Structures
1.
Amino acid sequence: MSTESADPSAVFRRYLSAMVLHSLASAEAAGLNATDYFALNLLDLTGPQTSGELARWTGLTTGATTRLIDRLEEGGHVRRVLDPADRRKVMVELVAPPATVDRAVEGARRRLGAVIAEYGPRQQATLFDYFGRAAEAYRASTEELVERRDG
Amino acid sequence: MSTESADPSAVFRRYLSAMVLHSLASAEAAGLNATDYFALNLLDLTGPQTSGELARWTGLTTGATTRLIDRLEEGGHVRRVLDPADRRKVMVELVAPPATVDRAVEGARRRLGAVIAEYGPRQQATLFDYFGRAAEAYRASTEELVERRDG
DNA sequence: GTAGTTATCTGCATTGATGCAGATATTAGA
DNA sequence: TCTAATATCTGCATCAATGCAGATAACTAC
């Protein structure tokens, strides 16, 4: 809670909490469980992955991952493509970001767009520079969590 | 996927995906399911809530919400406090952000701290100004999703 | 070609989160 | 006080996601 404090770490903390809340709410609004939403975002962020890599990222067994891919495919979000180089492998490709996800995230995109639009060009440049670097930082941190779990 | 493009909307999109991924991964790393993690973040962000308000935010029935609070209380994350003004009501207060959550988020905090530290004072001021405004934008967007579900 | 390994899939069982319906306690109103 | 409404809790049943173990198919090395 906390009244609006100028303490940078508190500001940042609130920012993180707000994003987590919205992530989970938008998954639910899109009709997806956390695992499915995670997988879709992963595919969107890193491109096609094999079933095995998906299992590693999600922490599921390969069996459960098969079912995960089944669900996503059934929903039309994803398609299976056999790897021509190794036909045992199944590449999972994002077909299209589901419309329900777009609709769920639309409000946030609009509000954030309005916030960003209020800054001047140089400030916007700073923000987008940050977004790019922060995305990589998050990705690396997520990978660290994944590895810690396996290790 | 996309190669690193300068397109602002693509940058922002990747940033959002990366954050969603990390949110979900950190929940799992903290040993919490999505609902429980959502509730903890909500309490952290907005302060104590009644059981009923928690039900509204999570979209659970009141019965399921009772069980949610049970789990959080059992884990020592939260405590029930009777509202003296209306003794039917149960206020749910955050006891302490669980250590497992801290540990899960630590990597991201460190990496993001390093990213932010590279900017000059005025740029940092811009970033923190943004964080504050964005947090509110996310909160409002989350509330919109909640209301859309109920309405 | 045979053996061994790897990647994915399937059948079956389990479990945890949830909904639902009714119970209980408290408050508000006539 | 009696009644209705509200807030939370409990018992029971259900369902979806997952783990596990074994099956299948494909690749690799000899």
Note: The helical segments of chain B are 8-29, 34-46, 51-58, 62-74, 99-117, 121-150.
2.
Amino acid sequence: MERSTRQRQAIREVLLELDRPLSPQEVLDAAQSKVPGLGIATVYRTLKGLVEEGAAVAVELPGNPPRYEPSGKTHHHHFHCTACGKVFELEGGCTSDFSAMAPPGFQTQGHEIVLYGRCADCR
Amino acid sequence: MERSTRQRQAIREVLLELDRPLSPQEVLDAAQSKVPGLGIATVYRTLKGLVEEGAAVAVELPGNPPRYEPSGKTHHHHFHCTACGKVFELEGGCTSDFSAMAPPGFQTQGHEIVLYGRCADCR
DNA sequence: TCAATAATGATAAATCATTATCATTTTGTC
DNA sequence: GACAAAATGATAATGATTTATCATTATTGA
């Protein structure tokens, strides 16, 4: 049986409210303002559960442990701030035909684009 | 003093010959056919040295430890085979203006593109 | 309200990649 | 060839993230 707890609610809310891919630690920091005393273990457990039930997806970026965002978003890419380390979601789809970039005989199934730079707050 | 050893030669050769970003383990596997008994520690040490002297660069891909390729290549991107796990270099530069994808106020400094799919051998 | 039990939080343990240690081997110089 | 020192290889140690454990707490259905 799955129970509704303040901790899980807070973690779900944080993912929706901050609206960018969050590391487990970022989730903890944000959710602790809603639920003081929240532990990191609960964050990991809950994120894992959310992914399993399809409510969240893991976002893998180069050189970093996975971050998490709500599922159901349209195809999009990410901006990784080299100063504060935050990852932001990019609006707008991709128009380029990336399949053409693959060598002959290769079958392209998907792609990932990451922009690096400074976010508005860090400039 | 820096000495020329069979191990370092083999590792350098492997990076040049295979011509794709290699994980330390891939380097070990390939170089052991040239130098039986080669140890993983030497691979890590040598790769680190090659990066420090500018002869190789680390390639970071989502969800994977860094891979290594010779430095000096022109700007390029990578193809990650979802079947065998090998990473390949893509020919051809990128024409799109990725800076335009960033939100207002963001400063884009660079980008990374990774295609996912099946390589010619795995289809 | 109560009992059953799922969930939590603190922390120990597990993982995995990478680095440090050190006795031994190999390289470069005289 | 001999010597000094760098390099190697085996493996222990490290660091960082994630998971397991377990006593305690909180939720849910009766």
Note: Residues 1, 3-6, 24, 40-41, 44-45, 48, 65 of chain B lie near DNA strand C (CB under 10 Å from a C1').
